[in-house]
């Protein structure tokens, strides 16, 4: 099944979605949903470290592919902050992804 996430993970029950998905599923992030792909910033007095957020780590543990619409990433100025686990795609690649799946769930 293809899951599309349109809203920020901070304004929706993303844990319910994470509990629903399995290895056969794929996730595409659109609009404010791309915030799910944002790296967390951890700092101490000498270093700044960027790492995947808790939601994305749990999705990675499940072995689910995550895609983000490239235009939405660029529009939000997040290009340099997107996790390397997330594959950025074009609109035409998004169409191919939807055609690949029989079932679709908008979140």
Automatic annotation (TrEMBL):
Gene3D superfamilies for the chain:
DsrEFH-like
Entry GO CC? sulfurtransferase complex
Q: Matching InterPro entries, A to Z?
A: DsrEFH-like, Sulphur_relay_TusB/DsrH
Instruction: From the UniProt record, list the coiled-coil ranges.
Output: none
* The organism's place on the tree of life at top rank: Bacteria
**Gene Ontology BP terms:** tRNA wobble position uridine thiolation
Q: What is this protein called?
A: Sulfurtransferase complex subunit TusB
Q: Which organism is it from?
A: Candidatus Aschnera chinzeii
The record's gene field reads tusB
